[in-house]
Amino acid sequence: MWRNWIPFWRPGVSSYAGDVDLLFAGLLTASIAIAVLLTALLLVFAIRYRVGSPADRDHRIRRSWRWEIAWTSAALIGFLGLFVWGAVLYLGIYGEPHDPLPIYVVAKQWMWKVQHPGGQREINELHVPVGRSIRLVMASQDVIHSFFVPAFRAKHDVVPGRYQTFWFRAEREGTFELLCAEFCGTDHSRMRGRVVVMQPAEYERWLAGQDVGGTLASEGAVLFRELGCSGCHSPQSTVHAPLLDGVYGKPVPLQDGSVVIADEAYIRDSILLPRSRVAAGYPPVMPSFAGRVSEDDLVRLVAYIKALAEK
Ligand code: CUA
Question: Is 185:145 a contact under the CB 8 Å cutoff?
């Protein structure tokens, strides 16, 4: 591979890393071309019209728009082309992958907490199978962090107060550095971990070898009762509250006439800010659970409501 011949260059190892590298090379080439052109012109004029040079300075001003228009439109088209290239790549990276494996990440000062749907938990480590799209659902418990795996060319901010989803697919086994790429306080530089990419069979063995209380969804079901959610959101309830079976991933009509898809972010908002987007046909009577459920518990509740849709 030609890229292995460039010193200090380590090709990326995720599905979109090659495209990101190519865009980087394109930007670098454009920047070098412009820098060389401008420096060369600068030198030529500086030498030619230096003090005491016999160069002819008696130019008559000729009106010619040809150079002006050619140069301006070439630069415009060239740089707009880079923009379109980057935008297309961005939409691919920040879109939704096909049949992903969901993994929950909670960032806090100063660590990465990872929860797998089966209930496996790890800190500053993320084990994933090779060749499978991983969809990260990320939340921050305090300030803005940024999930960054340089080898995957994957970076996404983790902002408090909302879920961010992000995906990648590792194409090679190995251990890769995980960094926080947003200054988040004293120990920001130590907020790092590693991503371990394994063969699927090995990954299954790793999952089975972890100490697990229950799946995220089963822990969520316990919380759902403990917090009293089941008191209203059940068929027997006298309170007129929406039933949540099968709601995940479906469109929900809202009181203001708009429609949202019930994704993780919507479920989270409905728990913490229940009056912000009220489902049509229901009175806005639900109390907010902000401050009563931690990010870790929110992940469990969301996993439970997702599991209701999969039954
Ligand atoms: Cu978290 Cu920097």
Answer: no
Which atom, in ligand 1's list, is nearest to the CA of 191?
A: 1
Task: Provide the H-helix boundaries in the chain.
Answer: 17-48, 66-93, 200-208, 216-226, 229-232, 264-272, 295-310
pLDDT per residue as tens digits for the range 262-274: 888 888 888 888 8
- State the distance from the centre of ligand 1 to the C-alpha of 182, rounded, in angstroms: 5
Separation CA 260–CA 273 (nearest Å): 15
Distance, CA 248 to ligand 1 centroid (Å)?
31
User: What confidence tens digit (pLDDT) does each residue in 95-109 have?
Assistant: 878 888 889 999 989
CA of 263 relative to ligand 1 center, distance in Å: 26
Nearest-angstrom CA–CA distance, 294 and 192 = 22
- The answer, yes or no, to whether any atom of ligand 1 lies below 6 A from the CB of 268, is no
- Do the strands 125-129 and 121-123 form a parallel or antiparallel pair, or are they unpaired? unpaired
| Any ligand 1 atom below 6 A from CB of 295 | no
Q: Model pTM?
A: 0.76
